[in-house]
Design brief:
Elements: H1 3-22, E1 29-36, H2 42-54, H3 63-66, E2 70-76, H4 88-96, E3 110-118, E4 131-139, H5 142-147, H6 155-166, H7 173-180, H8 190-209, H9 248-270, E5 277-282, H10 284-290, H11 292-306, H12 316-322, E6 328-333, H13 344-354, H14 356-364, E7 368-373, E8 381-387, E9 390-399, E10 404-407, H15 417-424, E11 440-441, H16 458-466
Parallel strand pairs: 1-4, 1-5, 5-6, 6-7
Antiparallel strand pairs: 2-3, 3-4, 8-9, 9-10, 9-11
Helix pairs in contact: 1-12, 2-4, 7-8, 10-11, 11-14, 11-15
Amino acid sequence: MPLNSIVNGITRTIETATDVVTSPFSEPVIRLGVTGLSRAGKTVFITSLVANLMDRGRMPQFVPAANGAILSAYLQPQPDDTVPRFPFEDHLSKITSKTPSWPEGTRRTSELRLSLRVRSSGLLSGVSGPRTVHLDIVDYPGEWLLDLALLEKTYEQWSAETLDRMNYRKSADGFRNTLDQFDATAEFQETALGALSAAFADYLEAARQEGYSDLTPGRFLLPGDLEGSPVLTFAPLPDDAPQGRGTYWRECERRFEAYKKQVVKPFFQEHFARIDRQIVLVDVLGAIHNGPRAVEDLRTAMADILSAFRPGRNAWLSRILGGKRVEKILFAATKADHLHHSQHAKLTAITAALLRDAKDRADFAGAETQAMSIAALRATTEDTVVHDGTELNVVRGTLENGRQAAFYPGALPDDPAHLLGPARDRAEQWLDEDYGIMNFSPAPLTLKAGDGPPHIRLDRAAQFLFGDRL
């Protein structure tokens, strides 16, 4: 084992042990990880959550707010000096302005500390004053989240799985054509591999636009300072390519392993492995709209992602010996405001079924998990219209062009298997139903004093995630 890995492990163990020993006498900290895939709404979730914790008038299902235990909430500098601050104020101003707009999505890791002044409870409530609990919210791109599953895979496994998925995606046509013309038997040349890698990156972007979820390596989509580096210049190759010394296969394998060691693993150690509670935001409605193959791709992607979590209860001895483990994981289907409330229970059931493999794995390890349908910022109202003599429960909202529209996405099935069956069979389309989707702009808000932005079940999500710690 490399010396630096040993030193880092010892350092983290000492830090964890110190936290455990001093926590009864210091201000407790809850580290909440907010993760999810592209367009799942991480930025809006964090912005609305913080705003609603600071102004708690719309949080009746969040017990510490409802019973008055939270006396005040305020922002403080985050403890990690090298991590950018989540730009809460900028994002809030966008969604609450007279002409509101959606904030930009996550492109890097960021953090925000919200400190909560809480009335003491229990045996010492009569002799002790209020206490402070810090909620450290860690936000990072969903594209990077997918990479955590790579830690357990070899280059050969990743190549085989990636090339197999391409057989079912039109977005892969360009890369497949480039790969067919690529001479893997030729003498290695950086320019040739660079062209193949660029074609692979173009495929990943096209697949994301097509609605697919499993798009590893995620840094190919958000390269940042690594753009053009060897660690981001490789591509999957078929297993019949020459694999001897000096071949394209061997060089791609080396760079794949370097990517895991130098990019994925440090991220896991510095941020992901320190999480106490986790919410995984999932655009289930978007996947359903994109068809059975997108739903199956989402299912397998989330199962892979959960393999990187280390769920379990934070017993003090296990924390000293092995580091923290995620205690609670919430799987949240976002954009519930795109559905009439009469369909929310169906969306929740589909989410639970879609994530069954991953959820059972976490449950078995001791973590408490739950599925829920939420909308961090409600952009629609509900209505009933008559269409061809039939009453339809619809939602109304403002489109990106400023026009008002009523929307009926289709009736979700009562039995989730009616979706997951065709998805597992890799059907090209749904047989008996089309599921629509519409992009609504945020609605102009007129907030009363003490009220945060309107939402759907954000209070219940907060109660599950950290209500017990307050």
